[in-house]
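On clarity, I found the account of how folds are encoded harder to follow than it need be. What matters is that the chain and its backbone geometry are given together, residue for residue. The format is easy to grasp once an entry is in front of the reader. For illustration, here is how one protein appears when written out as sequence plus structure tokens.
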Amino acid sequence: MTLVQAVILGIVQGLTEFIPVSSSGHLVLVPHLLGWEFDHSRAFIFDVLVQWGTLFAVFIYYRKDLINIAVEFVSTLSKGKPFATENSRMGWYLILATIPAVVVGLLAKDLVESAFASPKMTGLFLLLTAVLLVAAEIAGKRNRSTSEITWFDAFWIGCSQVLALLPGVSRSGATIAGGMTRNLDRSAAARFSFLMSVPVMLGAGVLAFKDLFALQTMDDFLLPLCVGFFAALVSGYLAIRWLIAYLSKHSLYVFAVYCSLAGCLILLL
């Protein structure tokens, strides 16, 4: 993998991790369209570790929220009142929302990795993302804020995140749609979606590190990883800022149209 390729894929990862058009799908699609061929195991490790760039983008954008959640989570837990404040409850909700994807991801790791090698599957799952976005707009009443999230909401959105283990299903799209079907407004659903990306991407990255160190030769792989990481961080931060502002006034339909066109194009080609 060249540095130019790493930059392009890092930017693609950063933009599409949060914009609901599927980062995993585009990381499969872009190399296929440009005729780039990578070792399958290295490509998968690159995709997962470069997600840490977008993870740091979340840390930076939501740093105050994350600090408050962490401090109040520990404080109320030490006092024996773990659910006493909104931020402490949010910490528990994020843990609960993470469990479904972690369980399914560990049990189906090999199956998920093999799916990433199939552009056809990516096309089909991009169409599924479009369906999820349209369904959320039709079914959601959008009359609840983040402060009104319940235990069942968190678990429901966590189950939606399981779909995003498949290439072509947008993680942000699936979880935002999950939140909206529980009648969260678009901005609230997006905020919870981005916050719950932290433990998932952190865990996936740790597992990928183990695979990285298992490679016999990785010296020539470290520089592209670092370049891709920083490209994803910058583009990811910009994508979060833009999408939060966009969703306060606009629907998800434009992203559903994009996913439909991209999915059909992949299947036709």
Notes: The CA atoms of residues 72 and 85 lie 7 Å apart. The mean pLDDT is 85. Residues 3-268 form one domain.
